[in-house]
Structure formats: C-alpha cells, structure tokens
Amino acid sequence: MINENHHGIMSWLLIVFLQNGIPDSKLFFFTIVSFNWKHLYLQLISATLFPDFSSGKLCVDDCSSLLIKWLIESFLFNGQCCLMRKLLFLFLIPLLSAGGNNPAIDKKGENNTPDTVLVYYLGGQSNMEGFGYNKDLPAELKEGSGNVWIFNGNHVPDNGSGGGSGLWTELKPGNGMGFSSDGITNIYSDRFGPELSFGSAISKLNPGRKIALIKYARGGTSLQYKTSAFGTWNPDFSIGRGQNQYDFFLKTVHSALSVSDIDSDGRPDVLVPAGIIWMQGESDADHTMETAGLYKANLKQMMQLFRAALHNKNLPVVIGLIADSKMDEDGKMMDYLEVVQQAQREFVLEDKNAAIVESTLGYSFLTDKWHYTSADYIDLGEKFAESLILLTRK
Interior CA angle at 287 toward 41 and 304, to 5°? Predict the structure, then answer.
C-alpha cells in the first residue's frame, strides 16, 4: 500500500496536473496503477488521455461504444474491485460520452445537425433533494418546460443497489423527496427541490438554448468519511462493496451522458457541462468539531472531482450556505454551524470560479426543523441561477 508520504506527493501532483495538464499521460497512467492509490487521482486520466474531448474532436464508432458500455456495466457496477471499477469508469467514460454526443447518422443514413445543450449538475443532501410541496407551486412552475430536461439519478444508501439509475425526461414537479427511478420508469413524488425554479430561471437567462439538468442528491449525507448513517460522498470509502454517494454520482453522470438524444427529437445532442450547483453541509456541521474542521478540504476535493468528471477544471460552482432553524432546545440545530459556514465562504474566496448563495439565512423552515418551505426552494433555485450567470459573465 502507498504510504502517507506518497499520498502527499500524489495530492500535490493532482493539483499541479489539474492546473497545468500532464505532459506524458501514459507515464502518469502507469504511475497511478503502480501506486495503487485512491480513485480520485484516476479522474485525471479521462481529462488527459483525451484532451480533445471537450472540443468534440473525439469520435467513437458504434461498435466501440457498445464495447465500452459492456466493459463499464460488467466491471464498474458489479461490486468487484473498487480500484478497477473506478479506473474503468474514468478511463472509458470520455469515449462513451463522445460516442453518444458527437454528430451522428441516423438509421436511414441521413445526416443530423446536432443540438448543443447546456448541462448543469445539481447535488448535495436533503435541501437539494427538496421538500417543497407541489401543491404550493405557482401555475408557471406546475407545467413542464419543453426546453429543460432532467436526469434525476436514483439515490440509495452506500452499497445499495440501483444507485444512479434514471432517464431523461422533461423537467416537471415531483423530482424532490420521494422520487425514485429504476432506469425504465420514473416514480414522481408530491415534492420538489431547487431544480424546478433553477431550470426555469437558467432557461430564461439563456434564451434559445436547450438546458439539461443532471441531479443526484441524498438527504443526510456527509463529505467526511464515516460521519453519517445516511451515506458519504468521500472518495476514500471502501466499506463493503466500496460503493458510496460519489460512485452513484459517477453512475448518474455515465447514464446521463450515454444518451445521444435526450429529448427524442431525432437530432443528436452535444452535452456541454456549464456549471455545478451544490447544497450540502448540514451533516458535517452536526457531528464533531473535527468533522466540521475538515469540511473546507473535503469540499475543495469534491469540487475538483466533480469538475474532472465533467471534463472542465474551471467549471463554475455555486454553493448554498447552510442555515440553522434554531428550533433545538439550545437554540441551535447544528453545534458546529459556524465552522462549516466559514469553510464554505473561504472555499469561494479561494476559488475564482465559485460563488455562494446566502439567501438561505433568511429562509423559514418546516416543522421537521431541517428543511425549507416551498417558497424558499423556489427562491433558492432562482438565486442559484442568478449567481451562476453572474459568475460566468465576470
């Protein structure tokens, strides 16, 4: 096993390579394998072995795509070697995505002009999952938008089955708490989250553009390892089959990007990652001082991994500041609230491509003491969209 000195060296290399690229990707690939280290470094492979991916220069024929799909399904999600699963995913997903999202020829042999679609990832814990009530929605949000699509990954506990399954559908109410999918059929709930107003607002701020949302969020989850019984996003997770929320995020992205025509209009879609929206931190603020103190480092690592998975090291990130309902006996639901809030603010100050939404400090809470009201989820989604647009136009 790699020792802590090697860990420090590889962490340093991760930062350097994310910023400057890798001059000899093959050498780095074999270095990674020989170190047998955490899969977070393997994210770099997809961005460096295939540098032309984001510009659409990489093409894969149908046979190659089928082979790649078989490899991923056979090894990545069948509970085998954790390192091998992540390696295969991060090595192959750029090929699979490129094969699905490049200009294509339909079954009749006719050339199709592709549609460019702006893609936003929405993730976190329960206040991203969403506890707003559909019945409280204004009329304009109750009806689906023909220009905004969503792939909502099925969320499960760590080592659960079916995590990340889903399908592309038109954005509509019911993607909040209680939503589930088996990849064939979506089961909608009576709740919604920030995705509804975010999708509507970001579409209006990008007139004439197709919008796609990829969502994977699970209530109660933490960034710190072994902190929450609901699950962890930490990439070092190795309990049981070694599958946690980070793995299910990866599968959600894989499943979403493997679809070449997300709206079934007969034209291939080129999916272009345009931003990350993150609402999480309550679990880390409600555990121990040590967990809260590690939040900034964990958040920075997670956003690096998300950006790498979406093939853009400068992808804009907007996070939501966690807030406390103060409904506990001591007037505080989270004992280490201020520590995590400070970590969130410092992360944004140190990352030129990040912004923070602090309107949460004025929100009201449901009687469960943790979740916002319907009106506040609508406001949160709109604030996320406004902040993201301001960030991209700086």
Answer: 20
Domain boundaries, given as residue ranges, for the chain: 4-101, 115-392
Q: How confident is the model at residue 82 (pLDDT cuts 50, 70, 90)?
A: low
Scanning the structure block, which residue is given the tokens 């499943």? 255
Q: In this structure, what DSSP letter does residue 72 have?
A: I
Superfamily of domain 115-392: SGNH hydrolase (3.40.50.1110)
CA dihedral 280→285→286→290, nearest 10 degrees, is 130
Read off the pLDDT of each residue in 210-228 and give the average, rounded to a whole number: 93
Tell me the C-alpha distance between 114 and 91, whole Å. Answer: 25
Whole-number Å distance between alpha carbons of 54 and 394: 22
CA gap 35, 98 in Å, rounded? 29
How many whole angstroms separate alpha carbon 354 and alpha carbon 346?
A: 10
- Tens digits of per-residue pLDDT, 99-112? 444 444 344 445 57
Quick one: which H or E segment has residue 381?
A: helix 374-392
* Beta-strand relationship, 148-152 and 168-170: antiparallel
Is residue 357 within 8 A of residue 377, CB to CB? The reply is no
- The dihedral formed by the CA atoms of 357, 359, 364 and 367, expressed in degrees to the nearest 10: 10
* Residue type at position 331: G
Contacts of 13 (CB under 8 A, 6+ apart): 41
